[in-house]
Amino acid sequence: MESNLDLMRGRYSRQVLFRPIGEAGQRRLMDARVAVVGMGALGTAIATQLVRAGVGFVRLIDRDIVESSNLQRQSLYDERDAEDALPKAEAAAAKLRAANGDVQVVPVVADLTWRNAEALLADVDVIVDGTDNFQVRYLINDVAVKHHIPWAYGGAVSSYGTTAFIRPGETPCLVCLFGPDPGGGHDTCDTVGVIAPVVNLIASLQVAEVLKHLTGNREALNPGLTHVDVWQNVFRTVAFGPRRTDCPCCGRREFASLSARADSLTVSMCGRHTIQVRPERPGVNLERIAQRLRKVGPVRMNPHLLRCDLGAIQITLFPDGRALIHGTDDPVEARGLYARYIGM
Ligand SMILES: [Zn+2]
Question: What is the pLDDT of residue 19?
């Protein structure tokens, strides 16, 4: 490990030369803790910049595994990761540790829910959104408002994206901006695709706000919601209005996502005929289930998961009991397959 002085003059020299950061800012980054939720296209671009910038502690939270359809834009992963079906959080952490051994990179292979959201997010200085859905964003917003933690909202599909840096108590929160229920029917990467340039642009805008905030450059923070479209040449910022005093979240401090106390048992995964099944009673013995599954199809295991190939259907099972059922869009069928091959 290099000394702080060596780091300032070596690894971080160009960032330290940038006046608004300087040595004082760099020291603040090295003391900072950030959580990135989602390690897809946005999350990998965000985490890469944060770790290389020397943010001292970076937690990577993701529930998914690497697949070949990710490689077009999720720049931390390679073909080997997809062949090995590694969890994204683990694969990303390995790459990022190789890029900067001075940063504490902590992978968490899990689904963010009301059960674990405060444990995973309330102990950091900033939360960064790399997710692809509003259900998780509303959960992040609840934790952020409840614990007064700033967070960088970001989303990108097709060639367009939106981002805002939300500071509870100062700016409107996500519920102020989009209402208590943004409803369904949004474009997704599954329906309209996505290109890498917009993802990297939104991720960069998110990280820029994180760096400004962590280094104490508050006057430079983006005071609004920014919308971009890299195909239509749009770059537009709408200034935040006032916080809504009647906002159920940041006004009345009712945290609907945290207090829902209900997990949907199944959720469809963006982009690829996959349903996640999360049983009520967590925890499974992978070895024992592997022995059983070897009678019905080839089984591969790595330290993080088990994978069984049933022909048209593949099952990926994690030690916490969560499974990804690949090859179906039907939650009922997915639950049935879980019950049949793993047991509920
Ligand atoms: Zn609000």
Answer: 95
Residue 118 Cα to ligand 1 midpoint, Å, equals 18
What amino acid is encoded at 294 in this protein? R
Closest CA to 266 of 322, 341, 344: 322
Distance CA 327, CA 256 (A): 33
Read off the pLDDT of residues 193-228 as tens digits, 9 standing for 90 and up: 889 999 999 999 999 999 999 999 999 999 999 999
Domain boundaries, position 41: 32-259
Residue 158 near residue 194, CB atoms below 8 Å: yes
> Residue 1 in contact with residue 103, Cβ under 8 Å?
no
Q: What whole-number distance in Å separates Cα of residue 111 and Cα of residue 338? A: 17
Cα of 83 to ligand 1 centre, how many Å? 43
Length of the chain: 344
Answer yes or no: 189 catalytic. Answer: yes
Are 226 and 273 members of one domain? no
Centre of ligand 1 to C-alpha 242, Å, is 10
pTM of the predicted model as reported, rounded to 2 decimal places: 0.86
- List, edge to edge, every strand of the sheet that includes 305-309: 266-269, 274-277, 323-326, 314-317, 305-309, 299-302
Q: Which of 173, 176, 189, 249 is catalytic?
A: 189
Is 292 in a helix, a strand, or coil? helix
178/325 same-domain check:
no
CA of residue 107 to ligand 1 center, whole Å: 30
Centre of ligand 1 to C-alpha 260, Å, is 18
Give the count of alpha carbons within 13 A of 168, CB side only.
22
Q: Are 86 and 302 in contact (CB under 8 A)?
A: yes
150 and 191 share one domain = yes
How many domains does the structure of the chain reveal? 2
